[in-house]
Design goal:
The complex is a heterodimer. In chain A, 36% of the residues lie in helices and 25% in strands. Chain A has helices spanning 5-8, 11-30, 66-74, 112-131, 154-162, 166-171, 175-183, 238-254, 264-269, 283-291, and strands at 34-35, 41-42, 54-56, 59-61, 79-87, 99-108, 135-138, 141-144, 150-153, 193-199, 208-209, 212-223, 226-233, 276-282. Helix content of chain B is 2%, strand content 53%. A six-stranded antiparallel beta sheet of chain B has the order 1-6-2-3-4-5, with no helix packed on it. A five-stranded antiparallel beta sheet of chain B has the order 9-8-7-10-11. In chain B, strands 14-13-12-15-16 form a five-stranded antiparallel beta sheet, with no helix packed on it. The longest helix of chain B is centred in the middle third of the chain and has 4 residues, at 95-98. The chains are: A alpha+beta, B mainly beta.
Amino acid sequence: MLANWRLARKQPMLRARARLVQEIRQFFIAGGYLEVETPLRIPAPAPESHIEPIPSLSWFLQTSPELCMKRLLAAGYERLFQICHCWRDGERGGQHLPEFTMLEWYRAQSDYRDLMIDCEGLLVTLARAMTGATAVAFRGRIFELAPPWERLSVRAAFQRYCGMSADEALRLDLFDELMVEKIEPQLGWGTPTFIYDYPACRGALSRLKADEPDTAERFELYLGGVELANAFSELTDPLEQRRRFVAERDYRAAQGRLPLPLPEPFLAELASMPPAAGIALGIDRLVMLFCDAESIDDVVAFPPEEL
Amino acid sequence: MYTVADLKKGLKVTLDGDPYIVIAFEFSKPGKGQALYRTKLRNMINGTTLDRTYRSGESFEPAQLEERQMQYLYKEDTHYTFMDNQTYEQVQMSEDSVGDAKNFMIDNLPVDILLYGEKAIGVTLPNFVNLRVVQTDPWVKGDTSGSDSKPAVLETGYTLRVPPFIEEGELIVVDTRSGEYSTRVKG
């Protein structure tokens, strides 16, 4: 019998991964969060322009547990977290797997600034548990994780790294290219970086700023050029949310992509949702960080090509 | 037709009328943004490289490449002429495209020619070629310098190191992949 040496050699990484997940669990339980499990196979994911769900019979594998977790918020659950698998078709690269592990947490009566503080606390706690210090070595650098972390608005990032305004980049349809080629590689090298306040059209399910309706209360967290998390002050207006879903659905239809139904039960219950903030953090990338792994393939037992 | 989902290292595509090979490939996706496929491509005719970023939905023409068995006929100015063994059709290739292969090319040598449409853009030699030594110093018996090799010039003008016992006029076998002496041809 031929042993699978590549799999055998992953044991230290997979052990570190298991420990990290246990530490995450303890962090949230200690913070008064309720761990929940919502269905992985759902009839209607949130329609999003650039996220492709994988069909499962006439339903879909979830692209995120977001909608079900928000229905729990609407039903009065105040602090929730979940560690689960998500699927996104066609996403494969050094930092992407079509099946990956997501940590999501939600807080009622909060906004995205509270989640920034949660992120700082979580990473420092994990670093202490994993390395005994508040620093972590990754990609040839030592990263100090003790706050404060850099906070950089999207508009400031475009001016600083592209010499172009974010609005101009959107007008020229260059927003994503500039983000990937010019901005992301610069983020999170001194301290971790929160890049925040996205143009409204890049807000997805996030609330717009009360005094700046062209800006969405959204942030992403980067460390060493790697995107770790995406957070929103959640949109709680069912009409606005329906309008956005319809726009995304129509955009997808115009591109000839998989048709998606609207998540009606979610839209119906959204009106009862309190002001809240929610965040999704990629566990596989977090393991990459704490194990100083080169590729996401190193931190999972089986990349899809090896099945 | 290829789509971006087919992109990977080694894929050969046509861009702006030239054949390119993908030499580096990276999938990126900014949070909630569109998938971007960042590639480094090398022009298979002139060797220049370029960086290109593609979005999902884009498609590519495969490069129409074909490899055919031919033999080397002769060199004229800066062009090398080859002939297809089956059709007797002749193709020419520039000195630049022939590259280091010219060091080992002797008349009637069987080679594989890479064609892009009608255009010859690459040559693959046999792994071993017999070449005649046209100049090398004589072997002095009892030489105590301890040197175990000496320079020799081949009929193609290529210089390499050979064992001391190789003499002018001898036929030797050269490994075209390393450019090194392999053995002498007996008889």
